[in-house]
Amino acid sequence: MNPTTKQKLMGVSTATLCTALFKRGLHHQYIQDVRPLNANLPNMVGEAYTLRYMPAREDLNTIEVFKNREHPQRKAVEECPPGAVFVIDSRKDARAASAGGILVTRLMKRGVAGIVTDGGFRDSPEIARLAIPAYHQRPAAPTNLTVHQAIDINVPVGCGDAPVFPGDVVVGDAEGVVVIPAHMADDIATEAVEMTAFEDFVQEQVMQGRSILGLYPPTDEQSRIDFAAWRKANGR
Amino acid sequence: MNPTTKQKLMGVSTATLCTALFKRGLHHQYIQDVRPLNANLPNMVGEAYTLRYMPAREDLNTIEVFKNREHPQRKAVEECPPGAVFVIDSRKDARAASAGGILVTRLMKRGVAGIVTDGGFRDSPEIARLAIPAYHQRPAAPTNLTVHQAIDINVPVGCGDAPVFPGDVVVGDAEGVVVIPAHMADDIATEAVEMTAFEDFVQEQVMQGRSILGLYPPTDEQSRIDFAAWRKANGR
Amino acid sequence: MNPTTKQKLMGVSTATLCTALFKRGLHHQYIQDVRPLNANLPNMVGEAYTLRYMPAREDLNTIEVFKNREHPQRKAVEECPPGAVFVIDSRKDARAASAGGILVTRLMKRGVAGIVTDGGFRDSPEIARLAIPAYHQRPAAPTNLTVHQAIDINVPVGCGDAPVFPGDVVVGDAEGVVVIPAHMADDIATEAVEMTAFEDFVQEQVMQGRSILGLYPPTDEQSRIDFAAWRKANGR
Amino acid sequence: MNPTTKQKLMGVSTATLCTALFKRGLHHQYIQDVRPLNANLPNMVGEAYTLRYMPAREDLNTIEVFKNREHPQRKAVEECPPGAVFVIDSRKDARAASAGGILVTRLMKRGVAGIVTDGGFRDSPEIARLAIPAYHQRPAAPTNLTVHQAIDINVPVGCGDAPVFPGDVVVGDAEGVVVIPAHMADDIATEAVEMTAFEDFVQEQVMQGRSILGLYPPTDEQSRIDFAAWRKANGR
Amino acid sequence: MNPTTKQKLMGVSTATLCTALFKRGLHHQYIQDVRPLNANLPNMVGEAYTLRYMPAREDLNTIEVFKNREHPQRKAVEECPPGAVFVIDSRKDARAASAGGILVTRLMKRGVAGIVTDGGFRDSPEIARLAIPAYHQRPAAPTNLTVHQAIDINVPVGCGDAPVFPGDVVVGDAEGVVVIPAHMADDIATEAVEMTAFEDFVQEQVMQGRSILGLYPPTDEQSRIDFAAWRKANGR
Amino acid sequence: MNPTTKQKLMGVSTATLCTALFKRGLHHQYIQDVRPLNANLPNMVGEAYTLRYMPAREDLNTIEVFKNREHPQRKAVEECPPGAVFVIDSRKDARAASAGGILVTRLMKRGVAGIVTDGGFRDSPEIARLAIPAYHQRPAAPTNLTVHQAIDINVPVGCGDAPVFPGDVVVGDAEGVVVIPAHMADDIATEAVEMTAFEDFVQEQVMQGRSILGLYPPTDEQSRIDFAAWRKANGR
């Protein structure tokens, strides 16, 4: 990813990004029903590296399987590129863990930018104390073997009803996670920075008591004049 | 709303209010599955002012619609009376936002007492830092245009499976939100204050090791005597 | 329960216990979709004492029923043994409370080790401030009479889709709650302590940058050697 | 059950019975989300005999357990009184069977009046061809051992969110199933017969083109006169 | 509605109409999760006339309310125009009836084209035998008063997550129900007739063993030639 | 697949197969919540050929995409081997179609043994009249482009929470669909035939009034003697 784009995305919200995507006709890029384990971290920004789970079949999911170094879950954790976001398609099923504290720590140490599952993490209290952004539906102490079998690495998947292609740009904030198609990441990032400036201006005006009518959106000429002045004054 | 009633309702819990309503045969006044964005604020008390959403039709919900000052969402935000609670019927659908930080800020600045949706808010981290009580199901970054179209202002609605009529008294605490029919708000408030005194007495007794049998409810004569003494001693 | 077993269980996680149970063929012992009201308390450990709710029939659930000292909810609260965990089968229905602040306080004062429901508690902000671990699905202000009728004490029940027999050992941590069949509690506790030592070793290694391959599980001989040395060095 | 009451209940609908119960303040006696396997049978009427399932624990639910003649599922099938309705509390979970063709056949041969589960039946095509009314949520081929453990016979249970006490009168028609508290069965049956006569009259009138206003309910004097005449003419 | 449009819509499927709407950017016009009570009737076609329900409050929903001739449910049944489709917004809640046999019969006799609810009907076996198309989620014997209060007539509503404006053209077949915005009904109908001709041609070809590649869609020139010939031969 | 195995599987039920799988420790092979469009066809038996859907992204799912002969949905329909069962992983989402009448007809003409989706079919009334077994959750008229994007052919998938590997043996009857791991299909088929013989014997005995105790399972020696005689007499 373009470093400038990454930097831009570190400073905008998922809400703003959703609107920018909406303007381009993309309505379903928000990963539904996941939340940060630690809402006080900076934004999570990186390219998607995916892991796909399918339902577990008991004979293929004994505790012994992890002895296999090629087990897709373990292999993916070791191969996910630094800077990427590790996205797990857990079929929205949080009855068993998508991953636990040790694997998430390993991802963090390897420089991975964050991790998202539409299922749940185990060891969630420990993960919440790590310096890597992690998002899930709810805690899930049971081992993934109970419900999930890792089956594919870095293929297109669904996560929380959002389409995720490897390489898509994934952004998370204290609210949730949004997926930006790779080819439009630069444009979206640039537009989102502009939108954020305007929203910050509006928020400041509204805090000062101004009405939203004519201001948000700026259908009044005066609003546009004021915004131009505000940008200059604030160097944005 | 009677200022005395408001004051009373500032000091009682939604749990107590639900019981008072239950005694009058009302079982479904609690807004199901919403939670405060900031659980540390005082109670939210005000008369319901409602906004009704219907499912969005794409051609009627482009980004341009907000340029219309008569758009019901924007209009409602500017017209909701100070002191009222802004209640949004989002059909329990949190896939897209019911409102965002700027609109909630505007409501706050206009003196609105609080906001409730059975969907979700966007900019939820910002809203959580505002001094206005806000309740939702879960965060939702996508713009409301994706899923919701604001269609009616201040009509009777459902919110979290509770019936809400304009003018009903809405009370929220750190647990959730309850809706009191307008005509019984004074009585309910008075009764709830009485119940709260008794519950505080009971809680104190139980903390001192007393059994709940005969005390809660006070079927033992001694419990009633002790409560009377406690009231006198505590000026309640 | 064996006091040594209790002590062991105070120091291990529900995630580790789930894996130990999984190795013995038990896949469904985790109580799904409950969370601690206060995630900062020590582990909850105790033998299950159960209360079963059925759907409420209106004529049998007026506010008057609590005047009956034999009402199962109140009786159970007074009879649950100190050290036990009070487990409520609320049929996963959180539309009304399973219990409230006064009853939970009474359980705490009576020395009960904790309380779990797959429904919700009322007075949840107050309960969150008590020194007794409590787990539920979500807050529920309405009185239980609206939806639930207490019908049976200390019978086998389901809680969050987990089977719970009276006397089973229930363990809760900041993640959730797991149920250990009584007859295997000692073994599971011992194994979990061993597993925890290994996981702590692994976590430390991973924090120092070591790969999980060959380490977790320890298929490399070196991993086993290092672990042995670590145990000695750390007295575990 | 009073044979006259049974006869009356054979000729009325669950819809009419629900209204009669509603008039007495009972709102939740309809078993939600179950349907007849064969909608062409006569009404099912009988006193409830219940079986309670809890979640299955794997070590207690091997295929061997049915060798135990005291297994509650098998015991209940052999002990359910002729004329009763066999009601199974399956916790609304249809992922595994509540019962199968052989057990339902045995119930039929023993003279049981019908069977209801809020889970599912296996061998549902075969059951649909039997002359015993059976109601479930949806077909479920897996053996009950996968998900359910029979634990209690003839205790109060929930079925499809309705409270069911042993001895309650259970009535099923082509629409669904309703539960009448035992002590009011005679009254409800009598009232339902009266209501059915009126509804038949109204239906006939409406088929002839008459407006429902003033007729249903009969707020016009003429409606009451016409109904009296209709009763006389039709011997009802 | 244009009579030609109505005639066209009588002969096309909801699937074809959904595709025609999709081509115009409308993705959510299908009423989710409703089914016909009688799948053997001709298509249902008419303009939407709506009834909106909100959650019932007990004191406003006693059995007496139907004595009021202005009760919106009864009023709507008497005022719905002949030829219209009666669409009920039941908030997807089928725990209580949206309407019953007598009201549906009255609508039929008044010449109404059909009835749809995203909740359930009571007296569903009787309604299934009437000559009016009716669609619901599942049967619901309890009176609407238990859960629903009729509150608004002929306002924009949601039904099964589809937006429905009064006057929209509603079409039902044996599969389900689709809502066509009024202003595009003529165009959609015309296009759907064309599409149906092509689909019938394709289906015939496929039944004769032809591959779908190049045929569906007709990217092969030969497919278009064959279709032209087929149209001529079949007079379509 | 072994033709003898196929023949055996044509004559046994999914319920019996689930029990045979359960005995081998496989609990989740039943595809949950799908039903046959036509319950009067013979069993569906064939090896799984899979299609995986992911959530649709709007820019990749315009109506034009089907012009591409390599579109996975169309390609899969043309390449699925005769005799196979076409299994679609639709993420249990029935808001849009997994396939329609023309594609299913093409599969039928190509000799495919059946089709299963955990979503829904469009043109379901037409599909129900075809001579190919088809199973889905519920009808879904909207084109798949609305919600689904076909992304992978013949990879391991989940379908109705069951794990499905290409080549697994899929069996459907009037009740539902079960997935047998390829390597155990012969054994399971043979065992199921034996079990079916016994169940037919038991059913016959029960129809004649015999108790299930000692008979089902045959813990009485007499039951085993009688079964042996029955087999001889009935040539099974």
Describe this structure in words.
Six copies of one chain form a homohexamer. In chain A, the strands form three sheets. In chain A, strands 1, 2, 3, 5, 7, 8, 11 and 12 form an eight-stranded mixed β-sheet that branches. In chain A, a hairpin with a 4-residue loop joins strand 11 (169-172) and strand 12 (177-180). The model of chain A has no long low-confidence stretch (mean pLDDT 97). Chain A is 33% helix and 22% strand. Chain A has helices spanning 3-10, 14-23, 72-79, 101-109, 124-128, 185-207, 221-234, and strands spanning 35-36, 44-55, 85-89, 97-99, 114-117, 120-121, 134-136, 148-153, 157-159, 162-164, 169-172, 177-180. With 236 residues, chain A is of the alpha/beta class. Chains in contact: A-B, A-C, A-F, B-C, B-E, C-D, D-E, D-F, E-F. Chains A and B meet through helix 2 and helix 6 of A and helix 3, helix 4 and helix 5 of B.
